[in-house]
């Protein structure tokens, strides 16, 4: 029996991240992490950093990283917002931009943190079903709403769309903020950054966790018009002015400046993704064409949950979602070629 004060607590179903096993010698392909280390320039920053500096507060304006990103994207510093990973940035976006009584729209199969934020911040929402091929149709979003959130490429499908698609979505929703979540854009997707010049209601959210191998530092950012960025800053500064520490700021700036290393690691992952898709199909799997650092696969004979458990028993961790429409699929992160070879060998034994 609940005590009276328990009835006043927030009741919410939290987001559940991929399992982080502590066992050594496993193949971890369940959290969409980058299998390669960060840029050597990041290592250099960490080795040279003077710990005595930590007695002071970091730059609340994230100056060095904001400058590096502005140069990289060809934007003004006033168009960039920094946060602790894209999850932090997206949560602030939900609070800053979705304040009407109208429901916001996002796909029924997408990043499962979206409905959690809606519940937490009491934002009404409506999910729009993907079609039978797991595609999003802009025409489904042409009606009154309080905002739109779309991942491109989508997760867990890995399917990406082009600029014409994004333009249609923006043209259909001129009176609402449209957020394009580009967490996986660097693995073959087409970024909406060029459209920032045309649409003041567009917000692009990216992360350095995936393509720049900085998941452990938590670096995310939003790109938008100065008016939207100013609103985000006001929301952030209403509860925490110093969201990023000085080590993270300097290391992330170094990662942005090393474009050669960034392009090399992304190319390796794309090449391995192609080989993974081809190999899985030879093993009998149906695999969606992906523009992310993962693939979504299903087998016509053996259930996904059974494969998931059998792989785990062999020390290979992939992601299984007990969700409608994808409960017979596995999301498999692209690792190194050696890691994928271990996955293929384990699957051959299981099947």
Structural account:
Strand 9 (286-287) and strand 10 (294-298) form a beta hairpin. The chain has helices at residues 40-48, 63-73, 85-97, 113-121, 163-172, 226-237, 246-257, 259-282, 304-313, 337-350, and strands at 27-28, 80-83, 104-107, 125-128, 148-151, 178-181, 202-207, 220-223, 286-287, 294-298, 316-317, 319-320, 330-333. With 351 residues, it is α/β, with parallel strands linked by helices. The strands form four sheets. A five-stranded mixed β-sheet has the order 2-8-7-6-5, with helices on both faces. A four-stranded antiparallel β-sheet has the order 9-10-13-12, with helices on one face.
List keywords for this structure.
single chain; five-stranded mixed sheet; four-stranded antiparallel sheet; alpha/beta; globular; 13 strands; 10 helices; 351 residues
SS strand fraction = 5-15%
Parts with pLDDT < 50 across at least 5 consecutive residues: none
Helical element count?
10
Radius of gyration from the CA trace?
Answer: 21 Å
Sheet with most strands: strand arrangement: 2-8-7-6-5
How many strands in all?
A: 13
Cα(first) to Cα(last) distance is 48 Å
Shape: globular
* Percent helix range: 25-40%
The SSE order reads EHHEHEHEEHEEEHHHEEHEEEH
Global mean pLDDT = 95
Sheet with most strands: 5 strands, mixed
- Class computed from helices, strands and strand pairing: alpha/beta
